[in-house]
Write a structure and sequence with these properties.
This protein has helices at residues 57-60, 82-93, 97-101, 108-116, 139-142, 146-156, 535-540, 548-557; strands at residues 121-123, 179-180, 185-192, 208-211, 214-218, 222-227, 232-238, 247-252, 256-261, 265-270, 280-283, 292-299, 306-312, 316-321, 326-332, 337-342, 348-353, 355-362, 368-372, 379-384, 390-395, 399-404, 419-422, 428-433, 442-447, 449-456, 462-478, 483-488, 495-501. The protein is mainly beta. It is globular.
Length: 563
């Protein structure tokens, strides 16, 4: 992760004297008289919800990195939020004749109207195509179509990279843009929330999901708890000073909520605790660049003791025993760690960070067992599938690589990924495999902004794409994998989006016949609809949440089963 030393977010890995200006178009070739005057500022967004008590916007600020601008000295926003995107589109059309000739542009009066009329909740039954989309945007009223807005957004979006041109599509590369022909999830609702606080343009794991009714995200002086089924909110964790409220990563399990901060600190609380919302806290490091980049909750391999694995920007990887609130292990690597995932048997760990290579380590000692190359830029997302051998890594080169633990490298000692999937608009910042027992195995890849890709995790040949407008703060499964939660951090139309699996049981929920998978396949492909080949194996797994009788009933209700 880019090194940050203070709340001013000075980038020490960039020579400040050489920072280029990055206006959205080059004004040097436009006569001064031809330059349009900037339109009057948009009116303040309506209060779709009350901000927290005693919050002073002047001291807390709205998203110090809200524009996802990797260059703090740049004068022009590179990735504006929805309202800025629309305003800039309209404004640029005055100076760009080619843009005007290419089609209609949004009407500025209608943009002002859109800013005033912000819904609190958008449900499936309210959707009306271009007249009312997932975020309650009336594209028809703006004078454009959603498809036109998507094309404009794709053309102007900047994917941040640490290695120049690493995200370029190369003919020699194996990256494949998959066909969006699947239908794994359907939209249920989106609760618009303007208090989602995204503090770093590269770190996008700030969503915690304990259940389908308990979703957590960082706000201004606290962590909020949200119920996607009802749209209700409450405070889950309160901080006593602004420094503690600078959350860089967050996650939740069934009974624990934990967050890491910008100053090497962490806070956690047990969700079944009563009384006040004060949390346990600890210090991982006092290093100037000790930002907590990622945290994963998991039990000990030898007991049920809850552990938290922290990847930090000071090159350290630490494990904390939450029952005693003490650091039990600390391993220093050669670069900053940005994300980690534990194997189902808890023996191995995959780690990605400020390096192109992927590390496979011993989960207890931290010893590097495999050093895998193939990516072209820094990594920020990874996950380990329930089958025990499928691993996914996502880097800023706009690729998601799939690895098989049974064959990390070929006979020549060369790293061998079994598939390389190209993302749509930006690098994948959050990866999640579907849980065991949830039906068709899929991999969810949330990009830096806008796109959530749901990939067939058996063939890696097809996908479903769900797109909204705005920076994404992470994705997570809930309700045994039947719900998918996505967090949007957009200043004006961000919030919590709930998607529902619509293919669970659609194909032989109980019978794992292989009739659809008889095409030639690679050595690594395994039969079975779920992560295991038979329902008996699924329900016998320690993490299974269903019995064999429940699976039979589910199959029977769908009238698509055999015995």
């Amino acid at each position: 992760m880019t090194s940050l030393e203070s709340p001013l977010f000075v980038h020490h890995d960039i020579l400040q004297t050489t920072l280029p200006l990055s206006p959205l178009f080059d004004v040097a070739f436009i006569p001064p008289a031809a330059l349009p005057q900037p339109p009057e500022p948009l009116p303040p967004l309506p209060d779709v919800q009350d901000l927290e008590d005693e919050v002073d916007p002047a001291t807390t600020g709205l998203h110090p990195m809200a524009l996802s601008n990797a260059n703090p000295m740049s004068l022009g926003p590179e990735n504006p939020h929805v309202m800025q995107f629309l305003e800039l589109w309209e404004w640029q059309s005055h100076a760009d004749s080619q843009l005007r000739a290419s089609g209609p542009v949004p009407s500025f009066p209608q943009i002002r109207k859109l800013a005033r009329e912000c819904p609190r909740r958008v449900e499936y039954k309210e959707l009306k195509g271009d007249a009312y989309d997932f975020q309650g945007i009336n594209w028809s009223g703006l004078g454009v179509t959603r498809k036109m807005a998507r094309c404009r957004r794709m053309a102007t979006f900047h994917n941040y990279v640490n290695r120049s041109h690493s995200d370029s599509w190369r003919n020699a590369a194996s990256d494949r843009l998959l066909r969006p022909v699947e239908n794994y999830v359907r939209y249920q609702s989106m609760d618009i929330r303007r208090d989602v606080r995204l503090l770093h343009f590269q770190l996008r794991n700030i969503l915690g999901v304990a259940s389908r009714t308990r979703v957590f995200y960082p706000s201004f002086t606290s962590i909020k708890e949200h119920d996607p089924t009802t749209g209700r909110d409450k405070t889950a964790m309160r901080f006593d000073h602004q420094g503690a409220a600078h959350i860089s990563t967050l996650t939740a399990s069934d009974d624990i909520l934990i967050a890491g901060g910008f100053y090497g600190t962490y806070h956690y609380r047990y969700l079944d605790s009563t009384g006040d919302l004060e949390a346990h806290e600890g210090q991982l490091t006092t290093h100037n660049s000790g930002i907590t980049n990622h945290v994963q909750l998991h039990p000990s391999r030898h007991s049920s003791t809850p552990l938290a694995a922290f990847a930090s920007n000071d090159f350290g990887f630490r494990v904390v025993d939450l029952s005693t609130n003490k650091i039990t292990s600390e391993v220093m690597y050669d670069f900053a760690m940005n994300c980690s995932a534990l194997s189902p048997d808890m023996r191995l760990r995959v780690i990605v960070g400020d390096h192109q290579n992927v590390l496979i380590t011993d989960a207890e000692t931290g010893e590097i067992l495999q050093d895998l190359d193939g990516h072209r830029d820094f990594g920020f997302a990874c996950d380990w599938a329930p089958d025990g051998w499928t691993v996914a890594t996502g880097n800023q080169d706009k690729s998601v690589r799939i690895w098989d633990a049974r064959k990390w490298k070929n006979s020549k000692g060369e790293s061998t990924s079994i598939a390389t999937v190209r993302t749509e608009m930006a690098g994948a910042r959050s990866l999640r495999f579907s849980p065991l027992g949830s039906g068709k195995r899929i991999l969810v890849a949330a990009e830096e902004a806008d796109f959530v890709n749901l990939i067939d995790a058996q063939t890696f040949n097809t996908r479903q794409t769900v797109d909204i407008f705005g920076e994404l703060g992470g994705v997570a499964f809930a309700n045994g994998g039947h719900d998918l939660i996505a967090l949007s951090c957009d200043l004006s139309r961000g919030g919590v989006m709930r998607l529902e699996r619509c293919d669970a049981g659609a194909e032989d929920t109980f019978s794992y016949a292989q009739r659809k998978y008889q095409e030639p396949s690679g050595w690594w492909r395994t039969p079975g609809y779920d992560w295991m080949q038979s329902p008996e194996q699924v329900v016998a797994a320690p993490t299974s949440q269903m019995t064999l009788t429940q699976k039979r009933r589910q199959a029977a209700m769908l009238e698509n089963w055999t015995f």
